[in-house]
Write the structure tokens for this entry.
Amino acid sequence: MKNKFLLLICALVAYLSINAQLAYYDGSQFPLFGKISEQTETRYERLPAFLKTVTRPPVWELGKNTAGLYLRFVSNSASIGLKWTLTENRNMNHMTPTGIKGFDLYCLQNDKWEFVNSARPNSNNKDNSAIIISNMTNDEKEFLLYFPLYDGVESLQVGIDSTATISQSQKQLPKTEKPVICYGTSILQGGCASRPGMAHTNILSRWFNREFINLGFSGNGQLDYEIAEIIAGHDASLIILDFMPNVNVEQIEQKMKNFYDIIRKKSPQVPILFIENPVFPQAKFDGYMQKAVTAKNEALHKVFNNLLASGEKNIQLVSSAGMIGVDDEATVDGIHFTDLGFMRYAEYLYPYIQKYLEPI
């Protein structure tokens, strides 16, 4: 017992020693990516400020979640720490706190992004601090820092050794020209990845070394036309529409073509992928859900085929068959994806995206 106590004291002293030696730099000093607009109310959110009085309240509030946002910086520090303040300090019973409100650090190694470690939140406090990594070599490294998936961030500071340097990256990796824009639901927002880097949009961004913009709104990917407008106004290389779990047949029939037309009017040549509703594991046992998914996918095919018949080009419908495997082991609740589900989904989407976007 005495030995365990001494070990605990030593670990605490070591942690406090490292933390005390770090110098902190405000996150505003470093470029932020993954945003569809820079004209937001505060820096760390996703939707332009003018939508506050336009879009539905839940969409606006979810836009303050930082899913898909990331910072880039360069440092020769042996240690990296964070201090951050959350807007909500949200908790859910099917998603880890690190995925909801933590950060993920990646390092560029031979032009590939490798996971370093996570900044895990303090579960009972909006104010958080964490030492992500220590004892690295002191050569200069390129870092990428993913933001929380299901909470907002009021402030952020990046900590490095007091004798080390930190600066903005001069490398355009991930490449920001002509990003991929993804619109959809809670799954697209990142539910329920165990940590931010495991959301499939972030996985694909690393694999292609291209900026992906995450417009996933939990429970609210309901074809709101003002969201189509901001998608249309952006110079994208590819648009992925993954809204099906949040709409019903009536919404598909009444809104899908209008949503598409708004985008197509300003982006006449951009390829657009439509994703079928997944056949969730839960639907194999829940008869009502099974019928709903089948009916929605039939409605999607009908609208999509009408678009093709009218002469629309550069569109593709992606089947959900085998999207997350066939063993029904890739969700946390029969619907939302685990890390396994997200990895499988990223692998499934990769060849579709590769047709339009070669890896860098």
The radius of gyration is 21 Å. The mean pLDDT is 94. The first strand starts at residue 22 and ends at 26. The chain is about 30% helix and 25% strand.
